[in-house]
Amino acid sequence: MPREEELITELRVRKPDGWTTVSFPDEVATISVVGGKVDGQLYLTLTAEREDGPRLVELGILDIAPRETGPRR
Questions:
Q1: Whole-prediction pTM
Q2: CA neighbours within 13 Å on the CB side: how many for 59?
Q3: Angstrom distances, CA of residue 60 to CA of 3, 13, 27, 57
Q4: Tens digits of per-residue pLDDT, 29-42?
C-alpha cells in the first residue's frame, strides 16, 4: 500500500480478460509502449523505466484508455 504522499500513475488497459488498471509508482521516470503481433492480434507492452531500480513491465495489453486526469494521490 503506497504512503499517502506518494503519487501513483494509473492507466486503464484492456487485457484479454477485460479492462483493468495498471499502476506505476512515483519513481518511474518514463513509460514506453511497444507493440507486436501475436496470432494476428496486436499486443502492447508497457515498460516503466526507473533511474535506480529494475524496469517494471506489463505484458499482454490490447488497448489503453484515454487519460482523463493526471496522477492520483
A1: 0.71
A2: 2
A3: 29, 10, 23, 10
A4: 899 999 998 888 89
Element (H, E) at 50: strand 41-50
Encode burial over 50-62: b for 16+ CB neighbours within 10 A, e otherwise: eeeeeebebeebe
Q: Which three cell numbers stand for residue 22?
A: 495498471
3-state helix, strand, coil in the chain (%, to 5): 0, 65, 35
73: Cβ contacts below 8 Å, ≥ 6 apart = 4, 5, 6, 7, 8
Residue 20 binned pLDDT confidence (cut-offs 50, 70, 90): very high
Length of the chain counted residue by residue: 73
